[in-house]
Design brief:
By secondary structure, the protein is α/β, with parallel strands linked by helices. Helix 4 packs parallel to helix 5 and helix 4 crosses helix 10. Zinc ion (ZN) binds next to helix 8.
């Protein structure tokens, strides 16, 4: 947590948070603790959107928003942090922009990457609580490892169709994702795009996730420690199952290995939106103005506040973030994505 010495609530903060402060068992000190807490919301999609709205309204001090994709028309039905005018923007940036309007007391840190074993530690370093709005076990495994290594509690949630699962992993006090899910793989037949996902389910699951985050922030025992909660909104049933640590767990029973050495290579990920996210091996600090004027002779370039949109031709559109991440729409293969990265950012990087 980042501590502001002798911090006291201002009159405005007291008014903004008055219904929170009026709650039984909730003091000024508790509000200050929340305002000094940094959370990471991984994924600004179906689960991330309602969670982000709650985290922001409640007044968590800093929110790191991690998402690799861009906003599409089919997202708006459930991804309530976006407006229709956000279509085409990077989700992390669009979410931060909209949430700032809701609560200017909160600091936002949007990061447009695909979280994996190589960047997990970098992305999560310095946060107090991790909240899950991810859509793949591959990404969750990376988060699980980083959570154990950094000793950060991880509120797990997964939702598809009418069903959600939630539990809270606290390093040293509970098992981990691997203990519960084993080697579960992503089922390509069972994605939100294939079987859909209920917006009301997402709101319930998000509320539970944020409730866990509140308890963790305040040093209280989260209700889903060593318990798995399942929600089924087709029958509106909620169940709880005791879960624990697997004694032979290959992830949390072993001393944590140091994070994988960075390979300094491009990582290319295909996204749900039929786009590709390309991340350089190291964070670049691109000067967007210079890049825009360099690209201007070859492409049609739009300069936005915190990113560029490059129209390569009528079909291919590339969103460029200052850290060197690209989201490319309109291509079919990872090879084409890599080629575009070289054309736009250059070989030196
Ligand atoms: Zn484990």
């Amino acid at each position: 947590m980042f501590i502001i010495q002798g911090m006291k609530l201002t009159d405005k903060q007291r008014e903004r948070y008055s219904r929170m402060l009026a709650l039984r068992d909730f003091s000024d000190d508790d509000m200050e603790t929340i305002m000094n807490t940094t959370v990471a919301m991984l994924g600004a999609g179906g689960l991330g959107s309602p969670s982000l709205r709650l985290l922001t309204a409640i007044g968590f001090g800093r929110i790191r928003i991690v998402d690799r994709d861009i906003v599409e028309l089919s997202n708006i039905q459930r991804q309530t942090v976006f407006n229709t005018r956000d279509i085409g923007k990077p989700k992390a940036e669009a979410a931060a922009e909209n949430l700032e309007l809701m609560n200017p007391e909160v600091q936002f840190d949007p990061i447009c990457v695909s979280i994996d074993d190589e960047n997990g530690i970098d992305v999560l370093k310095g946060v107090d609580i991790i909240l899950d709005g991810l859509d793949s076990f591959k990404a969750r495994r990376a988060v699980n490892k980083a959570s154990l290594e950094l000793k950060i509690p991880y509120v797990f949630s997964g939702a598809v169709e009418y069903y959600a699962n939630l539990t809270t992993f606290v390093p040293g006090k509970t098992g981990c994702l691997q203990c519960v899910m084993g080697d579960a793989q992503d089922n390509p037949e069972n994605t939100c795009a294939q079987v859909g996902v209920s917006p009301t389910l997402l709101s319930i699951a998000a509320a539970v996730e944020v409730n866990e985050a509140l308890k963790l922030a305040l040093g209280r025992t989260p209700d889903l420690m060593n318990r798995l909660m399942t929600i089924d909104t087709s029958t509106l049933s909620i169940d709880f199952f005791d879960i624990g640590k697997a004694e032979d767990c290959e992830v949390c029973s072993q001393p944590q290995k140091k994070a994988t050495e960075k390979k300094n290579e491009l990582s290319v990920t295909q996204l749900c939106s039929q786009s590709f996210n390309i991340s350089p091996g190291k964070t670049l600090n691109l000067d967007l103005d210079t890049l825009a004027s360099n690209l201007d002779s070859m492409y049609s370039v739009q300069r936005r506040k915190r990113f560029l949109i490059v129209h390569v031709d009528d079909n291919i559109r590339v969103t460029v973030m200052p850290a060197g991440n690209l989201i490319v729409k309109g291509i079919a293969t990872a090879e084409e994505a890599t080629k575009l990265f070289q054309d736009i950012i250059g070989d030196d990087n």
